[in-house]
Amino acid sequence: MLKLFEHEHLDVKRLSDEETAIEVRNLSLQFSDKPVLNDISMRIPKHRITALIGQSGCGKSTLISCFNRMNDLISGCRYQGEIILGGRDINHKKENVSRLRTQVGMVFQRPNPFPLSIYENVCYGLRLQGVNGRRQLDDTVEQALVDAALWDEVKDRLFESAQVLSGGQQQRLVIARALALKPDILLLDEPTSALDPLTTLYIEELMAGLKKRCSIIIVTHNMQQAARVSDYTAFLHQGRLIEYSDSDSLFTMPHKKQTEDYITGRYG
Ligand SMILES: Nc1ncnc2c1ncn2[C@@H]1O[C@H](COP(=O)(O)OP(=O)(O)OP(=O)(O)O)[C@@H](O)[C@H]1O
């Protein structure tokens, strides 16, 4: 199925259901009385990297946290609108949120390995699902570490503590932990902001390879990074989606003045 449009240039305003990983319909969100997201509608393509950019506090992290219902953990959070994933509205009260979080993996700004071995970090989610067969765990751990470009560096010390890895290795470990659950969508919330430039480039190359396996949505403050790695970019301002298009167009010929002001550094 993927091969149908793997290399095609897609118009995000006209994505078919087959090409869409997530469709957001009129999503608004408030924390207590504070409106944070305002009537956002967009389709995010499958097997592409989509970047969310915008000033600090504009709602980027809140928006991606809607995609695996992480905001449910925040008291006073209310939202309206639909988020269609795999043909269902994940905002529906009957949504199985554990299953959703398997389908939609998330990686945060600071690498957060558990105080366990490298091996146990990667198979953590599988064990929670009740998978205990050694063969299946071994195979999954190896594949996830290969996919996260970490296998060669850790294959001889899988049972050592994950805490001794470098920051870049820890971030790849956390990506491997998400990949072990074979997510359809991977959410990356400023995944390289705590890393040095070389390690950042390494993670960016990794992302480019991963989009064959899943659809990637990345929040970044770094516009060079958004332009380098993402196929599509959405610009948010004060909780509204201002402009959303292929990254080349958005960064070279923005249609809206607010986008232009932001990408040229006039504010934010
Ligand atoms: N748990 C919370 N309770 C109340 N308000 C919150 C909470 N989390 C975020 N907010 C508010 O929601 C707004 C959007 O925050 P969010 O973290 O989504 O922005 P952002 O664009 O990701 O910012 P940054 O780039 O600084 O990470 C901000 O005004 C923030 O203060």
Polypeptide structure, described:
Its EC number is 3.6.3.27. One of its GO terms (biological process) is phosphate ion transmembrane transport. It comes from Alteromonas aestuariivivens. InterPro entries: AAA+_ATPase (IPR003593), ABC_transporter-like_ATP-bd (IPR003439), ABC_transporter-like_CS (IPR017871), P-loop_NTPase (IPR027417), PstB-like (IPR005670). This protein has 268 residues and is an alpha/beta fold. The chain has one domain: Rossmann fold. Helix content is 33%, strand content 25%. It is built from 11 helices and 10 strands. The strands form 2 sheets. The chain has a 6-stranded mixed beta sheet with strand order 6-7-8-3-9-10, with helices on both faces. A 4-stranded antiparallel beta sheet has the order 2-1-4-5, with helices on one face. The mean pLDDT is 93. Bound molecules: adenosine-5'-triphosphate (ATP). The site of adenosine-5'-triphosphate (ATP) has 12 residues, from helix 1.
How is this fold's topology laid out?
Elements: E1 20-31, E2 34-45, E3 49-53, H1 60-66, E4 77-85, E5 88-89, H2 97-103, E6 104-107, H3 118-122, H4 124-128, H5 134-147, H6 151-154, H7 167-179, E7 185-189, H8 197-210, E8 215-219, H9 223-229, E9 232-237, E10 240-246, H10 247-252, H11 257-263
Parallel strand pairs: 3-8, 3-9, 6-7, 7-8
Antiparallel strand pairs: 1-2, 1-4, 4-5, 9-10
Helix pairs in contact: 5-7
The protein binds adenosine-5'-triphosphate.
